[in-house]
Protein 1
Amino acid sequence: MTSKRSFRMLLSLFIALSIFGVLANLFFPNEVIGNVYPGIDFDQNAFEFLYLTVYSYSTMLLLIVSFVGLFMFKRWARDLFVAYFLISIPSYFLFDFPYTATGITQLLDNLSWVMIGFLIAVMYLAPVKKFFFDKDVEHTNLANEGF
């Protein structure tokens, strides 16, 4: 298996983990969590809501654009993915609303954070690093490599 194919498979695994983590709340609801939220007063003003919305959509857009670039081994996509990682970290400290999660949701969230770190390490180390600087990669078709 080539390094390109392995990297793309890891990236696909990260995407699948992230999507499944979001969908897990829909398909595996927790009765206790459902009972906790109605008793919480969120008293969120319009500015905080707007800030949270803009922050969420901008980080999501940043992630999607970086995924496209990473699949095509674009040099700028590595920096964009690291920027997404660095911008996502303060979200745990900036938003002071209560957060509850089921066990599977927390597991998938933790796995996706580990995958982010692993992908960053792989992108900046050999042998995958060379593909981001290879001029021929820009002209290769994904179908030629089987993935």
Note: Helices lie at 3-27, 31-36, 46-71, 75-88, 91-94, 103-124.
Protein 2
Amino acid sequence: MSRRSIQKFFNKYVRNTQKNTRVSSFKIELTPTVILSTRALKHVYDKRPAQEFDFFIKNLQKIITNPDQVYLNKSGKRGNLCLIKIKNNEPYLCLLENISHTSHSTKEVVTFFRSNWTYIRDYELLWERKDGNLHRNELLRIEQFTPQ
């Protein structure tokens, strides 16, 4: 999945829709185990500043396949995993939720947003990039992670 594909998906189903209106329900596969829905895109499009939204449209694929940190989300909050990409020392979060009704382990993007380090200070760190790129075995372990 390329950045252009995400942009086309957004342009076709979400762009220029009025705030707080419903959009048709469609999903796009970002990786073999992660999907993005028009609902999540619309939510972020309505709630986040344009600059922040544009950053995510351009970098969502990179955040999912090559995060800098992975946290376990707090119980009671939507989404199980919190993937973080750090830019200018600010955390950009992408929350993924396990979808239990599928035959294989699939996660759906719930939301994405820029935050601050205080927001995640009490989260449980599962993985952090030390040096270099994320090894494919680590990515597979993260993608297969299913919290209890």
Note: The helical segments are 3-13, 38-47, 50-65, 136-144.
Protein 3
Amino acid sequence: MRVQAEAEDLGAGARRGDTGPRTTLTSAWAFASTYRLDRRLRHVPADPKTPILVFNRQGDLHKKAVSPALDAEIRRVLAPQADWSAIDAEWLKADDRVFLFDFLKREGRSLETMPYEERWALLPRVYRSPFLETLEIFRTADKCLEALARTETWVEGLVFKSLKAPGFSDASVVRCRKR
């Protein structure tokens, strides 16, 4: 697989201490698994009486409502205290599982000026949940290869994200689909 060879080459160069583009990639970019699921923006209100709103990629409200159990778990893990928070996530609807990967707005404050590395650091990572998982970001070729080797049918490939670029621009994202 070409991606595997390039990732191994990238990792070997970093281990040797090479400078230049390969080292820059490993220090300025992070890698994460991508899933062939429904990518959805979730708007989570601090007010427990206000429903969580789920939008599709076109900005329309999703037809499927968040289940009461998932609603409770999102609120428990994110614990919003004020206003609204918006998260970017993949939704495995059949299992009612959500994979968190970005914070877009937190308690009423837009995070568009923050780079991905800082937004990702705001996501909860130490919790147990049957419904939620915060996607790990990888910084080594070995972790990338491990992610590509996963066999679940919904694991699509990798996404490479600039850690330092501010905002939500697609120019700071490179997708790599496994075949």
Note: The radius of gyration is 17 Å.
